[in-house]
Known about the structure:
It is built from seven helices and 14 strands. With 255 residues, it is α/β, with parallel strands linked by helices. The chain has two domains: 68 residues, CATH 2.40.240.20; 174 residues, Alpha/beta knot (3-Layer(aba) Sandwich), CATH 3.40.1280.
Amino acid sequence: MRLYCPDLPDPGFPPIELQTEELKYAKNVLRAKLMDEVLLFDGRGREAKGVITRLDREHFTVEIKEVYKSSGKESALGIRLLQGILKGQKMDLVIQKTAELGVARIQPLVTKYTEVKITRKLERWQKIAIEAARQCGRNVAPVINEPVEFMDFFKSGPVAEENGLIKEPGIIFWERGGEGLKEIAARLQDADSRFKGTGCISLAVGPEGGFSEEEVSVAVNNGFYRAGLGPRILRAETAAITAVGLAQFLFGDMG
Ligand code: SAH
């Protein structure tokens, strides 16, 4: 059974106490017993083998046997999802499913048509990402960044061009159309010889209300490709999950 432990000690250290969340999960869902072997992951690429040495109502103690670095399940392609913040459970769904698909980082964006008032749900989102990582066998949970305004994100320029080279290629998905992903894949490999599916790519998906024309042009002026996802207008959550899946298929480790 795989459990999350943010502060993995080294072997030989006194047994560690896991968080109550993990205690509930291990007892109620996984039916853990004393002396069971467990796998712990810290969400940053370290994993450990251990044995449960105490398990009661309040305590969940694991003795660490071995700690190792393992990232065998990580895609060589670092996908950053720039997601217009969605209402309630839709955002949760996008985080959960794209974490399973191997997204590296999610940057929630407040866009012109974002309908959500409370955007500070970082703790909840990070928790969902960690749970999804645990489920699908990843040792690295996607990082969820603080929400920022769409325009500020592009102004501060982590994706802007530098010396004529796109620092990090990006694709903005527009419901009113754009190029096909296969064409973009071909162009990306021509335009940026460094991009061999081992770098990073940003994928921008709008909120329920879509992207404004201005937002799309700001992204395009920052070197983003504008892509369509076929003739149908997808719900934002469908678009995000599909976009990440297709990016893994075209450039990453799926398919
Ligand atoms: N309210 C808008 C639809 C927004 S869909 C309308 O009715 O026109 C939410 C987001 O999903 C979009 O901003 C876009 O990023 C993505 N999306 C949905 N369908 C898409 C498509 N066919 N091609 C590209 N992106 C799409």
